[in-house]
Specification:
This protein is of the alpha+beta class. It folds into three domains: 109 residues, Orthogonal Bundle (Butyryl-Coa Dehydrogenase, subunit A, domain 1); 106 residues, Butyryl-CoA Dehydrogenase, subunit A, domain 2 (Beta Barrel), CATH 2.40.110.10; 148 residues, Butyryl-CoA Dehydrogenase, subunit A, domain 3. 54% of the residues lie in helices and 15% in strands. The protein has ten helices and nine strands. Strand 4 and strand 5 form a beta hairpin. Helix 3 packs across helix 6.
């Protein structure tokens, strides 16, 4: 890692610990949008990391994005999710959209004045995107969308929604919907186990008419477009999981250093030290695998697909393990909300599920091993 990346990590960590962490418990408890965190992120130009300078962003490389997500997630996973979903929601616009569409959507998202979201999942569709029921039918130069998207992060807070819709028997397109478009409505906020500061709701499309400019390139090649973006989004979710693990680990080390039993800090107990050592190995091994995957993605290496699946799998499984052990090391105090590890364990669970369940990641990895 370069000196610049190390300095960037230090700056984001300081921001997260001073401006984001103090509000994380209240955000979780009240299940509210992390407004203080978002203001801090915007004031430090972090929402624009994934966007080019020509569109108001900073054009940072993927490793910088991963580092930012890690450090923010270590303090508040919900805040990190809001930020990375904004990037995911604009990814196909950046890679495939027309200049007019980019100018319409990206500058506001890059500045943080507008939000974005990505809409794939449906009530009966999770991993099997071929079963998508939302339709987009052409009417002159316009397109009319009908359907329901489920578990949409950043809804209804976001302004822009990249919607994957069926355009033919075996074709999908990506369409950019604005929350104020006619025919757009939102379901009730989901009551979630974790990530409670990240707004999540259904997005309902009822005869939503869009002009041609809102179509991302070829409306029959949307599956190809989103497949090309999954490497990056999975790397970011892996980074979020890794950040949660690091935050839980740091909390456990601090607690065990300052908690005395039998006349000495419990950090001196041998069984406890063995647990902490295992946690440290899980974090560092996951980080190494993730950064390796990031370099492959940045190099355009075809091996990146399998490697990032490995990273997403390992980072999220290890995050769940580390957060659970961190709670255990707090004893009874870990089970109450006075300490952050309880929240971190709940937050960690979803990283094993979204952006492709870890069972799906294992199938992708096995396919790369066997070649089919």
């Amino acid at each position: 890692m370069s000196i610049e990346h190390r300095e960037f990590r230090a700056s984001v960590r300081k921001l997260a610990q001073t401006k984001i962490a103090p509000h994380a418990a209240d955000v979780d408890d009240k299940e509210r949008f992390p407004s203080e965190s978002w203001a801090a992120l915007c004031s430090n130009d972090l929402p624009g990391l994934a966007h080019p300078e020509s569109l108001g962003g900073s054009g940072a490389d993927l490793l910088s994005q991963v580092i930012a997500v890690e450090e923010v997630a270590a303090s508040c996973a919900s805040s990190a999710l809001v930020m990375l979903v904004n990037w995911a929601g604009t990814s196909t616009v950046l890679s495939q959209g027309s200049n007019e569409l980019k100018q319409l959507v990206v500058p506001g998202v890059a500045s943080g004045s507008a939000g974005a979201a990505w809409c794939m999942t449906e009530p009966r569709v999770g991993s099997d995107l071929s079963a998508i029921a939302t339709t987009a039918v052409q009417d002159g130069s316009d397109w009319i969308l009908n359907g329901q998207k489920r578990f949409i992060s950043n809804a209804p807070w976001a302004d822009w929604y990249a919607v994957l819709a069926k355009t033919g028997d075996k074709s999908l397109g990506v369409f950019i919907v604005h929350k104020d478009d006619d025919g757009v409505s939102f379901g009730a906020p989901e009551k979630k186990m974790g990530m409670r500061g990240s707004p999540t709701a259904d997005v309902v499309l009822d005869g939503c008419r869009l002009p041609a400019v809102r179509v991302v390139n070829d409306p029959y090649r949307g599956f190809r477009y989103i497949s090309a973006e999954l490497n990056v989004s999975r790397a970011l979710i892996a980074a979020q999981a890794l950040g949660i693990a690091q935050g839980a680990f740091d909390a456990a080390v601090s607690y065990t250093t300052n908690r005395d039993q039998f006349g000495q800090p419990i950090s001196r107990f041998q069984l406890l030290r063995g647990m902490v050592a295992d946690m440290a190995v899980k974090i560092e091994s996951a980080r190494s695998l993730l950064y390796d995957a990031v370099h492959l993605i940045q190099d355009g290496d075809p091996a990146a697909r399998a490697k990032v699946a490995m990273a997403k799998l390992l980072c999220s499984d290890n995050a769940m393990s580390v957060a659970t052990d961190a709670l255990q090391l707090h004893g009874g105090y870990g089970y109450v909300r006075d300490y952050p590890v309880e929240r971190m364990m709940r937050d960690a669970k979803i990283t094993q599920i979204y952006e492709g369940t870890n069972q799906i990641q294992r199938l992708l990895i096995a396919k790369s091993v066997y070649g089919k």
